[in-house]
Design a protein that fits this description.
Layout (H helix, E strand, L loop, with lengths): L9 H6 L24 E5 L5 H9 L4 E6 L2 H13 L5 E5 L5 H4 L5 E7 L17 H10 E11 L2 H13 L3 E6 L15 H8 L5 E6 L3
Parallel strand pairs: 1-2, 1-4, 2-3, 4-5
Antiparallel strand pairs: 5-7, 6-7
The structure holds S-adenosylmethionine (SAM).
């Protein structure tokens, strides 16, 4: 697997102890990258990483991995964590389509998808991170009672996701079309996009998916 979009952000990424360079070599051994063996939560499409870093700081008893496909974006997260070091976070520069090559069966305890790209054209539906195609990958890496937690401002993508979950053989634990005015908002940690869209008055959708295994 090759790192994506490396020119420009290369040196910082290649030299950072926070970024795992050949992630497929860690498959089945991700706990070796951390000080403590504890549950592993991943965020796919983390952007500049505010959500996962704030979450990791609040939950030292969980290990976190942030996944972002663009090195130029990941670089911003690396700069932040190097200013405020955390022992329980690592990053990978890769495409989400490769997750099952990088994580072993039952290696991940929870998956966060925050403000995933909507891919509005029908012919690109398979690229949406909440398509049945991607739930197939999540099925391979998530523990039996693990959850996928998805937030978005995009109602079309959210409605698509609500349809895809049962089609993928998963179930909905709960969902809301207005997270910030719902019972599920307690303890919510905002992402960069969430801050931007909620400031414009856009309601935030959120769902929790699981499967009966
Ligand atoms: N999660 C952040 C937030 O809520 O502020 C960023 C949201 S931004 C709209 C989506 C991010 O996901 C972008 O940084 C994009 O590069 C990344 N992304 C989209 N598709 C991806 C994929 N297939 N694999 C890895 N990262 C992806």
């Amino acid at each position: 697997m090759r790192l994506r979009n490396i020119p420009g952000a290369d040196d910082a990424i290649l030299n950072s102890e926070y970024c795992i360079k050949n992630p497929e070599e860690q498959k089945g051994h991700w706990q070796d990258c951390f000080d403590k063996v504890q549950p592993l939560h991943i965020e796919i499409g983390m952007g500049k990483g505010r959500f996962i870093m704030d979450t990791a700081a609040l939950h030292p008893d969980i290990n976190y991995i942030g996944i972002e496909r663009y090195s130029s974006v990941l670089l911003r997260a690396l700069q932040k964590v190097e200013q405020n070091p955390l022992p329980n976070i690592k990053f990978i520069c890769m495409d989400a389509a490769d997750v099952a090559e990088v994580f072993a069966k039952d290696e991940v305890d929870r998956i966060y998808l925050n403000f995933s790209d909507p891919w509005p054209k029908d012919r690109h539906a398979k690229r949406r991170l909440t398509s049945t195609h991607f739930f197939g990958f999540y099925d391979k890496i998530l523990i039996p009672d693990g959850q996928v937690i998805f937030k978005t401002d995009n109602r079309d993508l959210f409605d698509f996701s609500l349809e895809q979950i049962p089609l993928a053989g998963w179930k909905l634990l709960n969902y809301t079309y207005d997270l910030h005015n719902s019972e599920y908002n307690e303890g919510n940690i905002m992402t960069e996009y969430e801050t931007k869209f909620s400031a414009m008055g856009t309601p935030i959708n959120r769902l929790v998916a699981y499967r009966d295994k």
